[in-house]
Amino acid sequence: MTPFGARLRQLRDQRGMTMKAMAADIGVSPAYLSALEHGRRGRPTWMLLQRIIGCLNIIWDEAEELERLADLSHPRIVIDTEGLDPAATELANILSQRIRDLDAKTIGEILVLLTPRKK
User: In this predicted model, what pLDDT tens digit does every residue of 35-46 receive, in sequence order?
Assistant: First the structure.
């Protein structure tokens, strides 16, 4: 499951919406919505994201957070290290090989190191 998919499911559940009802409201199949929630689909398009925001009736802060999570939720990424220091390529390769072995605590620690701080 992606961060976007987890948050989408949480928001849908909080509102007591079934997957079938939400899918109909945003113009997709329940199977597609399920795949989006489970991370088997990539990021939603901007238009679909806007329909989701409207369907869930969320306001600025929650909408911005959902958009941010959508940007960070592509389940299959490519890291372009061309022109960077060789250590950057090594880091990208090690992370791709070892990410499945990392526990939640370690992933959290790495995220703290890599996530920009709000000013």
Answer: 999 988 878 999
